[in-house]
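Q: What residues go here?
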């Protein structure tokens, strides 16, 4: 005979497990745009740039290095879809845009890809959230949505 408390614990852990699985499947469906991919690496990812695919689609080749992001300011119009390809020139850095739930590691010799849709105007801060040395706290950038470029 199984103890009734043991039975209760078994049932509640089964319920919790199902909740976890349900939330995973739900997140995969609803948030699939944010799932990070690791791509085969080549040297072209070390060239920081913004490629315009069309007026609402951009590819940002982001290079993290001690202690800045390049490009550090990205100007796009509202409603844009942006693919971020993130690599590092030296140590391990982080790439985080909290408002967009983007969270990548920037690793030398590797590239991570993620996509975001910017449907509201504003300034989205990019921060390095992996400790990378004495200048770590200085390492940030911005995605600027719907503001004119000022030089
Ligand atoms: Cu780069 Cu911290």
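A:
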């Amino acid at each position: 005979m199984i103890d009734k408390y043991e039975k209760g614990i078994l049932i509640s852990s089964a319920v919790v497990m199902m909740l976890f699985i349900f939330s995973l499947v739900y997140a995969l469906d609803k948030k699939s745009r944010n799932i990070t991919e690791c791509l085969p690496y080549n040297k072209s990812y070390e060239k920081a740039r913004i490629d315009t695919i069309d007026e609402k689609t951009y590819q940002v080749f982001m290079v993290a290095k001690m202690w800045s992001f390049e490009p550090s300011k990205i100007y796009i119009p509202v409603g844009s879809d942006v693919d971020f390809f993130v690599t590092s020139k030296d140590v391990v850095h982080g790439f985080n845009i909290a408002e967009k739930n983007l969270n990548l590691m920037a690793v030398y010799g590797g590239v991570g890809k993620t996509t975001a849709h910017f449907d509201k105007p504003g300034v989205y801060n990019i921060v390095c959230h992996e400790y990378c040395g004495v200048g770590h706290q200085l390492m940030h950038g911005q995605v600027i949505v719907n503001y004119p470029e000022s030089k």
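A: Context that may help when evaluating the design: The mean pLDDT is 91. The pocket of dinuclear copper ion is lined by residues 64, 67, 93-94, 128, 130-132, 136, 139 (CB under 6 Å).
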